[in-house]
């Protein structure tokens, strides 16, 4: 699974389980991208003329679900779901320390860090762009906490910035102060719900359990 794998595919839609270390879109360097990987997969199936278009993107080191449109006619429906927040996407994140129990919504605007072009930062009210992240503790073990995270908005580095602003940066996130990890950045796009752009059926897509984050799926996590 060096390049990941398809977890859902039909004539208009494809969901791919992205590995770490690969860009979703090209950055001008000519490096191979996830879009290239998906195009190669489609060509191997004989769908040579199909041009995949990523509906979402993940950071290079974030793993998990990336949705691709395979049909220009239905892509506006997917784009509208993204813009209107009708797609629900759940992430798994591991942080060092004992995260408080229960569920909370982090409501803090996000803007660019004026001192480091690579970073974003949590801002005071009235600054940056509005951003809300829903966070729930799932499990604690060995000095780490597993969190279920849902985005109410979609700002750059939103989960990473919001968790770091709480004093719980993601393990492996050196950019935002996270402890080093041999497993890389412990952030995974795990589950997504959306309306199929043709049938209207509500789809619930989910990757295999990411054992690199947490060895076993906790009981009761649905």
Automatic annotation (TrEMBL):
| SUPFAM superfamilies linked | Pseudouridine synthase
Ranges for domain Pseudouridine synthase RsuA/RluA-like: 13-165
The record, for CDD domains, names: PseudoU_synth_RluA_like
Superkingdom classification of source: Bacteria
Database matches in InterPro entries: PsdUridine_synth_cat_dom_sf, PsdUridine_synth_RluA-like_CS, PsdUridine_synth_RsuA/RluA, RluA_PseudoU_synthase
Catalytic activity, per the record?
Answer: a uridine in RNA = a pseudouridine in RNA
Q: Which Pfam families match?
A: PseudoU_synth_2
**Would you identify the family this protein belongs to, as annotated?**
Belongs to the pseudouridine synthase RluA family.
Q: What is this protein called?
A: RNA pseudouridylate synthase
**Species the sequence originates in:** Olsenella profusa
């Amino acid at each position: 699974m060096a390049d990941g794998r398809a977890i859902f595919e039909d004539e208009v839609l494809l969901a791919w389980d992205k590995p770490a270390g690969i860009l979703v879109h090209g950055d001008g360097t000519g490096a191979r991208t996830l879009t290239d990987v998906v195009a190669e997969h489609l060509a191997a199936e004989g769908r040579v003329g199909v041009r995949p278009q990523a509906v979402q993107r993940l950071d290079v080191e974030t793993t998990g679900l990336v949705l691709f449109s395979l049909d220009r006619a239905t892509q506006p429906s997917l784009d509208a779901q993204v813009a209107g927040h009708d797609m629900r996407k759940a992430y798994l994140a591991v942080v060092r320390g004992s995260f408080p129990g229960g569920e909370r919504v982090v409501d803090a605007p996000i803007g660019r860090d004026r001192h480091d072009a690579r970073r974003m930062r949590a801002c005071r009210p009235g600054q940056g762009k509005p951003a809300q992240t829903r966070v729930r503790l799932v499990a604690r073990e060995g000095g780490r906490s597993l969190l279920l995270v849902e985005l109410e908005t979609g700002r750059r580095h939103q989960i990473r910035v919001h968790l770091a602003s709480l004093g719980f940066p993601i393990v492996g996130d050196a950019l935002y102060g996270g402890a080093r990890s041999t497993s890389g950045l412990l952030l995974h796009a795990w589950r997504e719900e959306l309306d199929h752009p043709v049938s209207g059926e509500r789809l619930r897509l989910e990757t295999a359990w990411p054992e690199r984050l947490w060895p076993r799926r906790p009981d009761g996590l649905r």
